[in-house]
Automatic annotation (TrEMBL):
Keyword list, A-Z: Ion channel, Ion transport, Membrane, Transmembrane, Transmembrane helix, Transport
GO molecular function: monoatomic cation transmembrane transporter activity
Residues that span the membrane, as ranges: 12-30, 36-55, 67-92
Location in or out of the cell: Cell membrane
GO BP field: potassium ion transport
Name the record gives this protein: Potassium channel protein
Alphabetized Gene3D superfamilies for the sequence: 1.10.287.70, NAD(P)-binding Rossmann-like Domain, Regulator of K+ conductance, C-terminal domain
A cellular component term, taken from the record's GO annotations: plasma membrane
């Protein structure tokens, strides 16, 4: 894109140069042919000639002046054609480039699997995008406002997006919803979030759906429509404000662990223990997760009954579909994923 813009600037500068050259050529030419003309008359005659506007001539033209005027008109047509060709070429190339980029993006989105779909890139959506980028997760943003998408791409140029209305099935299908792992509906209107949840659940019955609810009274409707989790910003903000006042150090610790950052490598992550893993049937002591990966296991959610076990003992048995909550950096988490697949 930058190369094409530089080329357009170069072409416009060349056209401006030839235009100035033509004005100089015509003005001097008229002055030399008829010395009785002043410089302003010669410049005026040159301008109305190459622009072909058809205003009245300065004076009755002699044969030589008419021939010279035809030359100026011909050169003017050439310069104007160069300008028109440069601008038209830039617009056509820019449109083709955008079309190719969209086609390539659609192909890449069609190849995604177990990705996350984010509907709405407003204030809440931008925070979600930041978290997903930091977690290095594949995701697709659906946003109806192209200006919002362009602003988002300035910070994250490599994200996938679909320009359209997330409440429509065909737009969700463009985001490859049938192969998605989860969907977050962060639209500003609860009615739109409700439509998204209904459509998403119909298109992919097995995915996790998280919806935003501005009005707490709509939470039940969203759950009935198929949402797995419904989050009310007002409730979250109130809980957080009270917690910061009552237990500031705990809240600060949790926020640091959840958000991480460039200056802190530790984060809380969750890792599933699938069927067939080498860890199934072993105790935490036998699995030796801290020794082999450097991670700290702070909790386990049992797969068979969704029971939580905080600060599990070394004798805790690992079973299929258990979910480990661990503390450590991304490199150590990758080691645990490799260990689980053995």
């Amino acid at each position: 894109m930058a190369i094409k813009e530089n080329r357009l600037q170069y072409n416009l500068l060349m056209v401006a140069f030839f235009l100035a050259l033509l004005l100089l050529f015509g003005t001097i030419g008229y002055k030399l042919i008829d010395e009785s003309w002043n410089w302003i008359d010669a410049l005026y005659m040159t301008f109305i000639s190459f622009s072909t506007v058809g205003f009245r001539e300065v004076d009755d033209l002699s044969l030589g002046e008419r021939i010279f005027t035809m030359v100026v008109v011909l050169l003017g047509i050439i310069v104007i054609s160069m300008l028109s060709a440069s601008v038209t070429s830039w617009f056509v190339q820019n449109e083709l480039l955008l079309k190719r980029k969209k086609q390539l993006m659609m192909k890449q989105i069609a190849q995604l699997k177990d990705h996350i779909i984010l509907c709405g890139a407003g204030d809440t959506g931008k925070t979600v995008v930041k978290e997903l980028v930091q977690a290095k997760k594949d995701f697709v943003v659906i946003e109806e406002n192209m200006e919002v998408i362009e602003a988002l791409q300035e910070h994250y140029p490599h994200i996938f997006f679909v320009h359209g209305d997330a409440t429509k099935d065909e737009v969700l299908e463009e985001a490859n919803i049938k192969r998605a792992k989860g969907l977050i509906s962060a639209l500003s209107l609860d009615s739109d979030n409700l439509f998204v949840v209904v459509s998403a659940r119909a298109l992919n019955p097995n995915m996790n759906i998280i919806s935003r609810a501005v009005d707490p009274s709509t939470e039940d409707k969203l759950y009935k429509a198929g949402a797995n989790y419904v989050i009310s910003p007002n409730m979250v903000e109130g809980t957080r404000m009270a917690s910061v006042l009552l237990r500031p150090t705990v809240v600060s610790f949790i926020e640091v662990m959840m958000r991480g950052g460039e200056d802190l490598s530790f984060r809380m992550e969750e890792v599933d223990v699938p069927a067939g893993s080498s860890l199934v049937g072993k105790t935490l002591k036998e699995a030796r997760i801290p020794q082999r990966t450097g991670l700290i296991v702070i909790a386990i959610k049992k797969g068979k009954d969704s029971r939580w076990m905080f600060n599990p003992s070394s004798n805790q048995l690992l079973e299929e579909n258990d979910r480990l909550i661990v503390l450590g950096d991304s490199e150590k988490v990758d080691k645990l994923f490799s260990l689980i697949k053995e």
